[in-house]
Every structure is written in structure tokens, then in C-alpha cells.
Fold this sequence. Notes:
The structure holds two protein chains of two kinds. Chain A is of the alpha+beta class. Chain A has seven helices and six strands; from the N terminus they run ααβββαβββαααα.
Amino acid sequence: MEEEVKGKGVSRRDFLKGLGGGAIGTAVISTGLLDPGKVEAYPTESIGTSRGKSAVNLKVNGKAYRLEVEHRETLAEALRDQLGFTGTKIGCDRGECGACTVVINGRNIYSCSQLAVWMQGKEILTIEGLARGEKLDPLQEAFIEGDGPQCGFCTSGQIMSGKALLMRNSNPTEAHVKKELSGNLCRCGNYNREVAAVLAAAAKGR
Amino acid sequence: MAQQQFSVVGKKTPRIDAYERVTGQAQYAGDYQLPNMLYARVLRSPYPHAKIVSIDASKAEKLPGVKAVIHHQNSQVPWASGGLTQKRMIFNNPVRYVGDAVAAVAATDRHIAEDALSLIEVKYEKLPHVLDANEALKPDAPKIYPKGNLSVGDGRVSAPITEQWGDLEKGFKEADKIFEDTYISKHVNNAQLERRASLAKWDGGKLTVWASTQGVSNTRTDIAKDLGLPLSKVRVICKYMGGGFGNKNQAQDYDLMTAVLARVTGQPVKLEFTREDDFIGMHGRWASEQRYKVGVKNDGTITAVDFYGVTNMGAYRKQTGDLGGCDFYQIPNFKKVVNPTHTNTVIGANYRAPSYPESVFGFASMLDQIAYELGVNPYDLFLRNRARLSKGKIPFTSNAQEECIIEGAKRIGWKEKWHKPGAAPGPKKHGIGMALGGYPFRLGLGAATIRVNPDGTAHVLVGVVDIGTGAKSTMAIVAAEALGIPLSQIQLTNGDTDVTPFSIGESGSRTTSFTAPAVIAAAEDVRKQIFSIAAPELKAKAEDLDLKDGIVFVKSDPAQKLPLNKALRRVESELIGRATTNPTWKGVDGKSFAAHFAEVEVDIFTGQVRITRYVAAHDSGTIINRLAAESQMKGGVVQGIGMALTEELLTDRPTAIPINPNYRDAKIPTHLEVPEVEVIFIEPYDPYGPFGGKSVGEPPITPAVATVANAIFNATGKRIKEIPITPDKILRAVQV
């Protein structure tokens, strides 16, 4: 799963020189000029930043990966962009909404607020890792039966926080659930449903 | 058809796409990745009003990885739906608010695109600005547009917005008492969890956009118009959508920017908003000031209402700016004047039930106060003034508002729990409040195609996007009911303009009432085909056949029957039912109604409000899917609670910079603030609605703000006339 090495090939500067310089700055892009024949397509190239990259070894949903990550790349970005686990959503990218919640070593964590490079040796569970083959996790079943998702964008995070709670406490009270999920915002306002689903899953698991 | 005769409609049905939503498989616009895809970011104005003297993007363009920088000098693309009274471009000069888009960058990686923004050198010449709508209407205010700041356009965006009936003077003469007061609401953001994202790709001359939108059809129309492309050359896809609540209607500037960037780079481009972009770069609910003059009899009967409102639309007019809080009462003599006004602030436009919750807050607070002044129980005053006729004279298609009031009050125990305002013991004072709301129910253009396969399964194609309302499931349920085959046999494809038929757009609580009639008609169309094929098999006339639960049978002799797959065994391809419907009515008006009730506990030492109980009674006609509809009601209440107690986009006065464009500081409700919302459905069968259903999505937010505000009044005996009702306002009120 290693990313291609970036920073090679034609540089932006060389490319612009080749065009006579300032092509973008002077090109007039207006409605009338959107005719496909008239606009130069830029050649495909891959130019990355020269900023630091490191390799990390981590486990996601039970499988080991070695990733080449930029130092500023967050875990949420690495999961989504490099590994394709797009069930982990990014709602705010600043540690407020919880859409990116994953379970790391048994705790619910905002993956937007963890750098990927910190994940050396960590075990990460995402929404994609909950089902066992065709068999859904009781939390997922409860979210389906109890209409847990409305738009569904916060749902992965709500479920992962619920999962972290149930991994530690199989018999939580409503107050426990609300507290554990309090870092997971739901703008559809489906809080009643989400709490009820976690409680239903707990009851099922007993 | 009476309710008990339904086989699928009205049940608690889990969403047909719930599996995808709980397993992470649902793909939202931002989840798609294409080979060679670039990432884009937007640079925004730091000034509320300024002329751009120059833009130098050369340093940004030289940053390795940057592929294109577009701005007003090299990309003059109109954004028609972004400004309805003044021409708006995707990049404007002058810029008219802090957050107005100045440039966009496409780069090989989102961080490089972000880095590049800081390398774009823009020289601004600051212009005078105005933030307050009342100030903006004064003759000497800085002019945002040459003709002034009142946002005058045509039709639904005219100004001032006026409405009048009866005889105001006579109404006030008949009044025993006249009350006047002013209420204020602030700008709040829709704050949907999914940040805006748009992915554009050109294949030759054809543009495909994976959009996060509340309407693929109108997004396609807008993009085609703004970019000068034929409709056939634009494809818009939205399969899953992470919320919008009114701020993802139509095509938005970022869709257009993405298309332009993809065009000039020759690569697919994904533009992502940051959360801050989302708070300031699109729009929220318009702030308002509302002045009421209300004439009443001593028993609380309203005789006249004279209402003047000012709404702050920000720098561009995207929506009406109306205020509709008086719509839920019987007002014999009425006058309304609302001035939608431009200021140099973030745009005010659609957010769930635009024009309602803020003005229901104002008017229902006003009525609650009048009840207090007259010594009347608010329950009696609300019940007495309930709406019998629309606009004072037009009958409603159906109306169970009275039952909503009565049943909701019973459920919460109004009679036992109501006490004189401020009379409960402290310091944590109990309060109970109520308010009336609802939302228009309208009919209009819808389209659907249904393909029935020879094995008895069916494929429904509709253009609707499921923005979280459960619209996909609703359409599948309606199809199953109308076809007479089990829901499990229905497959549904939605939200793709190359594949699915037209949809009006999933806003205004109109998805069901516009598109479901087309689904029903398409089902009728294909049923006729089924019956003519099955008739010889069953030795009956086609018109004597019926289809239920996947069985074709003779109506007069149900023992004569065939499973659908047997009936169609000679069909090799498929049967296709199609319909475009545009039902109308005459001499009637449609509305869904709601009566909400809340109990609160107000700590008069800290100013904190805790909502301890909430009852939402709704008349939305027949409920198609009880499970999803109940979730909608709960969710609307939660958003209303946020508006009532905590949410406001704050602006730093000297710089005009929004200072809390993020979840934490904008204070949207969390799990901890939300009570169990008890939902009651009163279900009159509406003769015009599909299977008797009316509007669902928007009604629940409308009375919620006022309900909480009135409960706070009942607890404290102090009327707070500005939302959000934050602890500081409560403390100031109770300590006076």
C-alpha cells in the first residue's frame, strides 16, 4: 500500500516555462471559452511537497499496513485517501464534531486530531471493521432497526463511540451512553435514536 | 383509501439504504477519488467591503504541486442562483463580506492547495461597510449596490414583501387592548455535518459533477446555464448527501469553481470546503427584527395584526427573506411589510423552514405575553386563535391543528403543570410553554419511471436526493404500495441526471408531495400493462384484475390468482411505467400543522436552561414511514433547541470578521442538551396528498424555538425578546 514517490518529474516552474510563463495567470476563463477544443489540457504529473515523510506500521481492522505518510497527514486522511476507508468521515477537521471517530486501542478517538505518523504499532478499528463477514455488529443492527442514521454522515462516528463504550462496559446506563457519545455531533438531531440504538445493542449483547 | 387499508404505507420501516449508512459503504461526494484527481481550496476576503486592486498569483502558481489558480480576472463565470436581485459571479470585485470568494487553487494535494492560498497576493482598497440591517436602510448608509441596500428584485424576491387582508383600522377599533413589541433573531448556520465538496471531471466536452446537493436536476440546470453548456453535456450525481437543511439547494459557486478548475487543468478536481468555509462561505438563516402591533379582545381573540420586519440577507440575495410566523393563527385583519436588506455580512438564506422558526418565536412569544397581560391561560389563547382558514379566507385541504393542540397538551399534562409565570419555587425553576407552527404543503411537478421485471421485481427510478429525510425509502414504500408488490422486491435508483427522471429538488418539504404522485401514476401505468398480459391467463378482463402483495387476482373472485412472476412469464424484457405529474388545486390551501410543548428547569443562579420534557404533536396528514418521520420530528426540535438557547454566528464589530465559525463556538446542541422528544401524529387523510400525506421535514423546527422561549418565561416570569436565550440574558432579566 505504499504511495508512489512524489516530487519527481516536471516541476511546476519548468512546466510554466515551457508554456512561455504565466499561462494560468493570463488565460481568460469565461463561459464563452469553455469550448473543449480551445482550452489547453495540462499534462498529468505528480508533484508532491518535499516536506517530511515517514513510514508507519499499523493495523487497521485487523490487517497490517505499512504506510508512507506525510508528517502533516492526519490519521483520518490516511485512512480515507490512502486506504480507502471512507466510512470514516471528516466533518470539521478540528476535533469538534466526531464524524471521524475511530477506535484506537480500545478508545474512541477523533482521527482528524491524530497525525498518521503517530500510529506506529497502533490497532485501529473503523466502521468498515465492525461486521464479521455478512454478520453485522449488534450496534449496526440496532442503528438500522432504530433509524440511527438520518443523513448518515455522523453515523460511523456515533457507532464507533458506542463501540468503544460497549467494549468496556456491556451494561451502560442512558447517562453513560450520552456522555460517551457527547463528542459526536448530529446536526440532523437524531440523538434520541442514537442513544436508544446503543442501549438496544447493549441489551442484545447481554 | 383509508389508512387501515395500506399494506406498506404507515408502518415503521427501516430505511432501504440503512445498511450502506451503518457500514461505511455509503459514498458521499467527498468520498469519491478519481485517478489524477486534484484538490481545491478557496481563498476568501478578509474585509467586509473592498475593491480588489490587484491579484498576483505568481508565487502560488510556482509552488510545486499547484496546477491552477482562478480568480475574478481570469474566470468570469456567473453564479445565477447565488444572487437573485444583483448579478453575482463566482468571484466578485468588489468583495462584499468577510468570506466572499476571491480565488481558488487546484493542487496535487489538499495541503499544498492550502499552502498556496497564503501565497496569493491580493491588494484591497477598503470601502465603507455596514453590518446592521436597520442601519443599512438609512439613507446615509454605505451602499452595497448603487440603488441602495433594500434588496429589490422580481416576483418572490421583490421588496418590500407585503401581504394584507381585512381592514386593519376596523380590526384595531374592535380590539379591547392593543399590544406592541419587538423581537430579534440572529444569524445561525445550517451546520450540516458534511462539509461542502464537489468533484468535477470532463470527458471531452461533457462535464460530470459529483455534488453534495439537495437537487441534482436544478444543479444541472444551473451549471449548464452558468457555464453555457447544453443540458446534455452536464451530468450531476448525488447518491448520498450529508445534510444541508436548505444550504445545498441549486448549484453553488464551488460546483462552478470545481468545473472550471477541472477544465483548465485537464484533470478531475475535488474542491473541499473547510468547516470555517462552510460557516461563512455559503449561508445561514437570515437574522431578523420583528415589530408587532396586535389588537385583541379581553378573552384573547385576535382582531388585528400589523407586522413590520427587517431581515438581514447579507451581501447577496439568495432567498426571500420573508417572515411567516403569523401563518398559524386566525387573524381577521392583517398587514405585513418585510424589508429584506443587504449588509456586509455572511449571507442569510435558506435553513430548514426558512422564514418560520425565528418569526414563530417572535409572534408566539408576543401571544404568550398577551395571554399573561390579559390573565388568560396561554393554552386557551392559542386554541382560541387557531387557524381555521388560510390568509383569513381560504379553506385548508385538511387541518388537524386543534387536535394537535388538545392531544399535545394532554400528553404533557398542561392542565396540571401550568402555573403562573415565575411562581415555581427556585433556584431551579420549573416552566412549561407551548407554541404553534407548521409549514406549507404544496403540489407540483414530479416524474418517475418504474421498470417491472419478468420475475416480479421492480426498479424505481426517481431523481430525488435523500438528504437524510428517508426520501429514497419513502419513494420505495409508495411504489410498493401503489404497485401492490412487497417492498423487498423494489430496487431504487436515484440522484443521477443521466439516469433518473427530473426532480424538483429536495427542499421545501415537497419531495413526497411532488414526486410520490408521479411514482403512483407510473405504478398505475405499469399495472395496466401487467393486467393486460395477465388477463388471458386468468380468463378475465384486464380492468377486473388487481395486484396486491405480488399476487395478480380477479377482484370479484380473489381465488383466481397468479403470482406476478407467473403472470409475466412470457415477458422477455421488462414492462416500463412512466409518469410526469403536476397536480394542482383551486380555492384551497395546504398546510401541515404542529403544536409543541416543553417543560424546562431554569437555574436562576447560573442562567442555565435544561429542557426536561418535550412533546411534539403533528398533523402532516398520512405518515408514509412512521420511523423516519418520527426521526425528522425529533431532529427538527433539536435544531430549534439550538436556535432557542445557544446558536448565533457572532461578528466582531470593528473588523466584521465572524468570530465563531466552528461547531464548538457556534454551540450546536450535543447529546447532553437534548431531552427525549415525544412525537404524536394526528393523521387526517389529506384529499390532495399522495396517500393522504402532507409535508414532514420542515414543520418540526417551526414552533420549537418559541416553545422553549415560552417555557423560560413561565419559569422566570421574564420575557426575553432576543434569541438565542443565553444564560447572560436570563441572568440580566431575573436580576432586574
